[in-house]
Hints:
alpha/beta; TIM Barrel; 3-stranded antiparallel sheet; NAD
Amino acid sequence: MLRLADQALTFDDVLLVPEYSDVLPKDVDIRTQLTESIELKIPLISAAMDTVTESRMSIAISELGGIGIVHKNLSIENQSNEVRKVKKYESGVVRDPITIRSDNKVGELIQLTNELSISGMPVVDDGNLVGIVTSRDFRNEQDLEAKVSSIMTPKAKLVTAKEGENLEVIKRLLQDNRIEKILLIDDNFKLTGLVTLKDINKSLDFPNAARDKEGRLIVGAAIGTKPDTMERVQNLIKANVDVLVLDSAHGHSEGVLNQIRLVKSEFPDIQILAGNIATGKAAQDVVKAGADAVKVGIGPGSICTTRVVTGVGVPQITAVAEVSESLKNKNIPVIADGGIRFSGDIAKAIAAGAHSVMLGSILAGTEEAPGEVELYQGRSYKSYRGMGSLGALTDDQDSSDRYFQDSS
């Protein structure tokens, strides 16, 4: 029997009523929670789409205080590598840095730095700091059989800083001594970390960047429900991903709920953002399964054809409001995904109860987006497509499970 829902509204149907304010724009605090344990400085998330978010977009948006979600239309290895690029880009204090022994050969040192894409490392023998070696020391070294001890900067000449030292003081030490790396030590001259001038400059240039506890930029990655999902999850966690986004066109389904339970049972500490959903009942079930945040939006996106093809969906303002109301007594953030065309839509979504919004089309044409550049009548354009498009489904077929498609 047909049951008609109450009146439902989307972004173009509503406006915010202005009221008295004694808050100046410069005093506004827009920090929010992505999950209970992950804070964003701005309520913006770049969408897990193959023409929107890979490492370059993730880095750019995290530096500004948001977070990027690396799409899953990649091999497990490539997606994990995209996450590593973000985590390595601005690492702050490097804890447990890769080290080498003084009796290792220069050839081994060069091989190690090439494999790890690093420019140097501390030299440690039996737990004792004895020196540091950088690319400047081995760049032109011809004798690959020589010992690292013959080219390193020895302990007596090391420039170090005490653990917990102010970044400005460390930066001054680096500049005064014309070096690029400085080692952090404790009272017993034991190595506790490493800081680079590049990372300090990034920290000072982007004071509002969204970082983890170790000072690295935060990043998320999309997963699905395919048989290899747990292998993907394991590799992403090894790459130090901060949040997993279980990405499905219909998040209120048995496969999605079972996948949340499975991931949480094996990795209880990993944060999971699950969706997409559009009702309060869906939100309750997804959270009960173990989700730390929910993503709302069935078909509101500018590129999305879900509502046209299937006839399914809920207008976005109503969907966000209903989900938010159903979770009001729980500490579960709500993300509005899709339909954001103007900055005012962001304000409307937040007013409806969203903690943050996910952006796709707004970011798709930027330099940081991975979409292909196309020339048309002398102008440059970036390609943009939905993850259910034929191109996305056939490129690597890793987005097919989002729409419950068999990729075989």
